[in-house]
Prior knowledge:
This protein is mainly α. The chain is 65% helix and 5% strand. Keywords: DNA-binding, Sigma factor, Transcription, Transcription regulation.
Amino acid sequence: MSTNQVHTLSPEKWVQSYSDYLFNYTISRVSNDEIARDLVQETFFSGLKSMKNFQGKASERTWLISILKRKIIDHYRKINSTKGKAEVRMNFYSDGDNAGEWIEERVPNSWTNDTDKDIENDELKDTLEMCIDKLPEKYGMVFRMKTIQGFETEEICKELDITASNLWVIIHRARTQLRRCMEDNWFNK
């Protein structure tokens, strides 16, 4: 039996009905309360702006989740872009008179004597990023989504319209290419 139920939107109920669910979904992917709240708020705002595009084929919650997924992906793309890095803020002091955030590029150096280790970690991170950037675009996206961002297999498959077996082939090939690139550019330099 096939039912072609047409769903409707009730934006006046979104915050009460979906904010907790969307927040919990988001916090498991970004691990930062403030960013999670901002992404949920942006989702509601985008939903309001694009209500005319809602076709009623999916439930309100499913539609809002699809908007939220795009917001999360955009968040990570922004962080990973050179331009976006200048906008990422970091906590320096968490309480007291000095509480505040710093733009990531301007965070003061650590006051420990681990400078050599920090330099080596930065070089390793830069080399790994360079190797990920050298991957074919789809490989890089799948690798980041699965390994770095922690998306579930089903979510990635649905988002990129690929099968689970295809995803695992891509992950395997990406890891093989990354290993080769890291050996050439990090371990054997």
